[in-house]
Amino acid sequence: MTEVTPMVFVVDDDEHVRSALARLIRLSGYSVQTFESAETFIERFDPNGGPACLLLDLQLPGLSGLALQHQLHEWLPIIFMSGHGNMSSAVDAMKGGATDFLPKPVTDSVLLDAIERALERARRLFGWRSELQDIQSRVKQLTPREREVMTLVVAGYLNKQVASELGAAEKTIKIHRARVMEKMKAGSLAELVRLAEKAESATATDTTASYR
């Protein structure tokens, strides 16, 4: 499997700052994309892309850095930078899940350390989301009856109890159960339970995600 190159997004309304940051980030071996506003970033951001972090200016024309953070929710790690930051803004940013809040000007070493921490978190998030997407694709292969069987099986029902609940022959339930195990790529009941729980978690995440 080809490793996905992490991306560093930079949102800052100062063109000189964007250029300087992009140059530093590229020279340090990272991929980088820059944006002059939060609105431009939202238009182009793909939440289903590879692992990435966001280097975000607090004070922006139009949508502010904190407002953008609120819209992105848990989609990617955010490093705030500000020359006008105050304690209240820093607290709000960290409560919102920011990985760092850096005052401008920031030294190269401090910034790059913050980027690496954020990207490490991004890699974990990407791996987690990739796993959930794989599990969801398995669930989609199940027929409606197989999903019913899986729901009851992971709830602890025996085959004869599932048969009684669904009004089917126990032999038929055994066939459905075997197909569920095969399609979900589960080697044991315990693994099927784990997969079902993650599939449910993925559905809940999709339902509550704040990014649009």
TrEMBL record:
Superkingdom, natural source: Bacteria
Residues modified to 4-aspartylphosphate: 57
Keyword Chaperone: no
Pfam families: GerE (PF00196), Response_reg (PF00072)
InterPro entries: CheY-like_superfamily (IPR011006), Sig_transdc_resp-reg_C-effctor (IPR016032), Sig_transdc_resp-reg_receiver (IPR001789), Tscrpt_reg_LuxR_C (IPR000792), WH-like_DNA-bd_sf (IPR036388)
Matches recorded under CDD domains: LuxR_C_like (cd06170)
Keyword Chloroplast (UniProt): no
Signal peptide extent: none
Keywords recorded for this protein, A-Z: DNA-binding, Phosphoprotein, Transcription, Transcription regulation
Annotated HTH luxR-type domain residues: 135-200
Domain Response regulatory: 7-119
Record protein name field: Response regulator
